[in-house]
């Protein structure tokens, strides 16, 4: 008897198996709902009633409640007593396919305005100099900005630009314009390729405070080296996006 | 006098301005060092001594110490008394350019093994059915896996596959193989395009425990719908990567 139970335990349980923890079933429901909240017809609309979700997912009422609690904890939905549950996500799509500045990519979602926290010349470390292909001792323009969409902080951007392009940049309106657009105008040629690295990191206390986010909030961290169309590297950026405000979407090919 | 000060305050401070908070200067140093820890010649090696970093970054000793503290808090470096500071990151690169399974993409870094937490048939919700282009009531195979590299948990994957491909898949070795590779063999044709959405989220307590990560740890969340080369959608996945174990890299073009 005990033997048979042992053997059974080695077989992974099926979706409806009562041995399966409710938290696993709740995650499964939450992931599908999350997609609908972010992309689907639920966006800024009402979620179906609990009873309907129970039917839709073939899940217990407690599982559905736990799934909704997960999405509430992320700030994606809200429950109003007597009214029901609705999506509240202020989460905006940033394309992964084409290299676009934030104002360009979010044009249809509202107005991007940048708070320029500091600008200035500095002698970069060897690592930064080598990525921008500068000679030792050559200075760069450094720019630090908080970027807001409709007044909400989206990201904190640290930017290094070679001096010949960076100094004319500082004379431009950095509050209303993407650096990408200004760089192309100043360089007189389009940007080409960028190498990007994405990570998820917990915000340190100071970065969290700067972005009006809770301490430890998940950030999407983007490091990006952008080249002009002639291959010259001209823009090295370290960008912390608030994880609760940005999604990145694109497509990938197998071949 | 007061007027002049007010006017001055409106000008962003330069990099060496003493009014600039040390936390801002520390972040600036940490971001460049972080890149070197992850990609550069420091990987699994020693960091330069504090005095050398002070020279290299033109920063104060306190700023350099605060920068190192930020990287330590993320688990990227460690200080050993009497020995110095060295990189300890177990952070692996996942390509953003070509669609690859985890074992394929991390081949040079070690062995990927999957713990199959559950498998089974289920009737999907309308959202899942519609994305996989299934008729109402058609069942799918559901697979839940923890994926480990050299024994370390990297991700928790929730996968939905149409029944005609999913059932033969369950007869295969899911512990040692990527689903991508198995699907191509079963379908008799290569995979084609995938639509992906990336987010940074804080781990809920149960997902954190499942991935051996601290509660609230930053996760890179990937939702991916993969098609066969003939355009048929065959694999819908919801993947939680540990933020401290994975980076995603690729390139983007402006044109």
UniProtKB/TrEMBL annotation, chains A, B:
- Would the keyword DNA-binding turn up in this protein's UniProt record? yes
Q: Which SMART domains match?
A: HTH_GNTR, UTRA
Task: Recite the UniProt keywords alphabetically.
Answer: DNA-binding, Transcription, Transcription regulation
Cite the InterPro entries for this sequence: Bact_HTH_transcr_reg, Chorismate_lyase_/UTRA_dom_sf, Tscrpt_reg_HTH_GntR, UTRA, WH-like_DNA-bd_sf, WH_DNA-bd_sf
One Gene Ontology term of the biological-process aspect is: negative regulation of DNA-templated transcription
According to the UniProt entry, where is the signal peptide? Answer: none
Q: Where is the HTH gntR-type domain?
A: 23-90
- Pfam families to which the protein is assigned, alphabetical: GntR, UTRA
MF terms per GO, please? DNA binding; DNA-binding transcription factor activity
Q: Mind telling me which SUPFAM superfamilies this protein's record contains?
A: Chorismate lyase-like, Winged helix' DNA-binding domain
What are the boundaries of the region Disordered?
1-25
Look up the domain of life of the source.
Bacteria
Instruction: Provide the protein name.
Output: GntR family transcriptional regulator
Q: Which organism is it from?
A: Actinomadura verrucosospora
